[in-house]
Amino acid sequence: MSGSESPGVARRAELARGYAAARERLDAAVTAAGRSRGDVELLVVTKFFPAVDVRHLIDLGVRTFGESREPEASRKIDEIRTGGADDAAVAAAEFDMIGSVQSKKAKSVARWARTVHSVDRAKVVDALSAGAEAALDAGTRSADLHILLQVSLDGDPQRGGVTVEDLPALAEHVRGAGGLALRGLMAIAPVEGAAEQWMARAQQIHTDFLVDHPDARELSAGMSGDLEEAVAHGSTCVRVGTAIMGRRPLVSQ
User: Fold this and answer.
1) Which sign does the torsion angle of CA 152, 156, 160, 165 carry?
2) Are 41 and 239 in contact (CB under 8 A)?
3) Residue 159 DSSP symbol
4) Could you tell me the pTM of the whole model?
5) C-beta of residue 170 within 8 angstroms of C-beta of residue 125
6) 195 lies in some domain
7) Tell me, what CATH number does 103's domain have?
8) Cα gap 62→93, rounded to integer Å
């Protein structure tokens, strides 16, 4: 950073470089897979990073963000909205919940989230349904809360995610819940094994799932380390944090 360059200007330039590189990488993966650019959303994961970083990204044209902790997300989003209440770009920004949701915090999440990517239990479905219906009644939501079911690719429930065997029952539970709309699946590749193997597995599970749920077309799969493999296997949303944001701050905000 030059002596005349403020930290804010330097940080914005850093984020611009990270986002441009991730966008270029995603576009190359989409082209290599024979798909169209609009087929895959780039969800910028801003968990642990401050509201000012999100504002920089909004100014750079980013409109979709991923958060994973509550109440951090609520505080951050409120700060962003309050600081740019008359800003059409801020108003157009959307935030998804990509982390595990605690039932006691579901009401807050349902107030701000466009989509929850990490649903894997009926108890969480019920809590999100109650929160979404309350938000719709209060006018703090204008549409149903979108739900992606997190599926376990290796069948280990300790890693998070519903097993393939239990997926149909959970999907039906979502479909019967008020204020929610089932939109698809989310998957995280286990550390052990090749990303190619796990993304092929995710694609097959999603293909089978579509037989009974043809409107659940979203597949949220792929992060900074494996987005190419995910795009090659049908991902419609890649969740990229580190490659754009850099290293996590020492003190979260």
Assistant:
1) positive
2) no
3) G
4) 0.94
5) yes
6) yes
7) 3.20.20.10
8) 8
pLDDT tens digits for the chain (253 residues)? 455 568 889 999 999 999 999 999 999 999 999 999 899 999 999 999 999 999 999 999 999 999 999 999 999 999 998 875 558 899 999 999 999 999 999 999 999 999 999 999 999 999 999 999 999 999 999 999 999 999 999 998 777 899 999 999 999 999 999 999 999 999 999 999 999 999 999 999 999 999 999 999 999 999 999 999 999 999 999 999 999 999 887 554 4
Report the candidate in 75, 71, 15 with the shortest Cα–Cα distance to residue 45: 15
Residue 245: closest CA among 41, 65, 77, 46:
46
CA–CA distance, 109 with 1 (Å, rounded to integer) = 38
The answer to whether 42 and 34 are in contact (CB under 8 A) is no
Residue 252 placed within a domain:
no
214 within some domain: yes
Structure tokens at 135: 């938000």
CA distance 241 to 253: 16
Structural domain that includes position 107: 7-245
Map residue 41 onto helix, strand or coil. strand
Q: Name the nearest CA neighbour of 162 among 176, 147, 178.
A: 147
Rounded CA separation 231/36 (Å): 11
Euclidean distance between CA atoms 140 and 37, whole angstroms: 32
Q: Token pair 């949303």 is at which residue?
A: 237
What is d(CA 165, CA 161) in angstroms, rounded to the nearest whole number? 12
Q: Is residue 109 part of a domain?
A: yes
Please state, in angstroms and rounded to a whole number, the distance separating the CA atoms of residues 79 and 54: 10
How many independent structural domains does the chain possess? Answer: 1
